[in-house]
Amino acid sequence: MKKIIINHRGREKRYAVLEDGKLIKVASSNLLQESLVGNIYAGRVEKVIKGMDAVFVDFGQGRNGFLHRDQLYAYRVLKTDQKATPIQSLVKQGEKVLVQVVADETELKGAKLTGIVELSGEHLIYMAGHSHIGVSKKIPQEAQKFWRKTAQQYLLENEGVLIRTSMQNKSIEEFVSELEQLRKTYQEILGKFRTANSGDLLFYKDTYLESIKAELKSSHDTEVLVDESGMFRALKKWQEEEGLYNLSISFYGEKEDIFSALHIENELSKLLKNVVWLDEGAYFIIEENEALTTIDVNTGKFIGKTDKEKTIFDTNIRAAKEIARQIQLRNISGIILIDFINMKSTVNKEAIIQTLKQNFANDRNGLHILGFTELGFLQMTRKRQAPTLLEKKTTSCKVCSGTGRVLSAESLAFKLERELFQWRGLDFETVVVEATDDVIALFSGVNKIFKERLEKELGFLLLFERMEKEIPSYKIKL
User: Fold this and answer.
1) 136 vs 121, 123, 212, 407, CA distance in Å?
2) Is there a contact between 395 and 11 (Cβ–Cβ < 8 Å)?
3) H/E stretch holding 454
């Protein structure tokens, strides 16, 4: 049984996906940490790096973004015999460029950008500057040929399109209508770009809401629970429009936070720990570092009831399944080295690789397993598209000079907000909260706008007392 739990009450919006009671996916969004992926900006070239064939672009959002020559619109429209053109001939320092965010910035790197704009529709993805036609492999081959030929008839020069599976049973008229709408949207963006200043947002993509809708569309006989009335009504209306009658969307109106009531909060807290326990005492340790992530598997107290090789293999198989789940939940990416318990059998090693592939089958981040090294490590890479859960939820610890991590002031401010929501409507005039300055500031917002808004909704006043601590902290005192 699949369940989708949507926690939409506070400023941090979250949803979790459970299968047979087990957490398999979690996503969140908030104004302070919202993903920029898909957004389109007017940028300014700050620096041209000839040796990297790339430029750094100021697009008004934190660090400068990275834009490779291959992702420049001016490069993509060149003829084949002109592809050796150096980047300095295509773009100049100080030049205004249209850019779309492909990957969010991290603690150490700026965002990854592209000049090849992609706009998503219901059944199509429109691409400007990329003459490519892609058709979902889930569509039968004959239908793929039909839609490829149809796209060729209606696409203009330097236009491309990706045709989704949902287009399979649609008409040519519906294809053309959606293509023209996406083309019109792109032309509107170009119109804004011509008069825009550097850093202006030209197109906003709500990746969080799109992610929820995509999850619901791909689900069958799924129970959906929503804790905020506005979101509940919006999803019910969308359900009717899409004809998704296989979904059961219900409203959760209890005072207790929905993630706490369904024990999801406890599962999320475990995702910030580096030790993951398996059944029968085995465990593995996850160490996320700047250059790569290492995972070390141990039998622990598990000794098995048969021969040593089978005990090791059984432990590694269980670990492989849980490692795949943890990597996706924690959004770990980049280079990953897994130190499974040493196995002699090449057949067993291949079984581990196949187990990982099966459990990453629905992962959209692009996993590549390279196999076991001579030292026995399984090496793999996973495409980075957003910060890891650890980066989003924690900050470097000032006390230990950055060698450890603690919950960030932002995470604690949202956590405090969720706790206070559970007291809504109770007979209090004032609730006293002791907190560090950073938590108070992020909780209250500019000119205390969020604090005052929350006080009205809760029905009591909030009085903050300053807490002297080196790390972000709070305590509700009543």
Assistant:
1) 14, 10, 21, 41
2) no
3) helix 449-458
Query: Backbone phi, then psi, for 404, in 5-degree steps?
Result: -130, 180
Ordered DSSP codes for 77-137: TS-GGGTT--GGGT--TT-EEEEEEEE---SSSPPEEESS-EEE-SSEEEEES---EEE-T
Element (H, E) at 66: strand 65-68
With beta carbons less than 8 A apart as the criterion, state whether 360 and 328 touch. Answer: yes
CA distances from 422 to 15, 44, 103, 340, 425 (A): 18, 46, 35, 43, 9
Q: Tell me the C-alpha distance between 162 and 211, whole Å.
A: 18
- Amino acid 225 reads L
Determine the Cα–Cα distance for residues 235 and 251; give it in Å rounded to an integer: 11
Structure tokens that stand for 60 in this block: 């008004």
pLDDT in tens, 389-407: 888 888 777 776 566 778 8
pTM: 0.71
Our CA angle for 441, 444, 446, nearest 5°, is 80
Structure tokens at 286: 């996850």
Torsion sign over Cα 31, 32, 38, 40:
positive
pLDDT, mean over the chain = 88
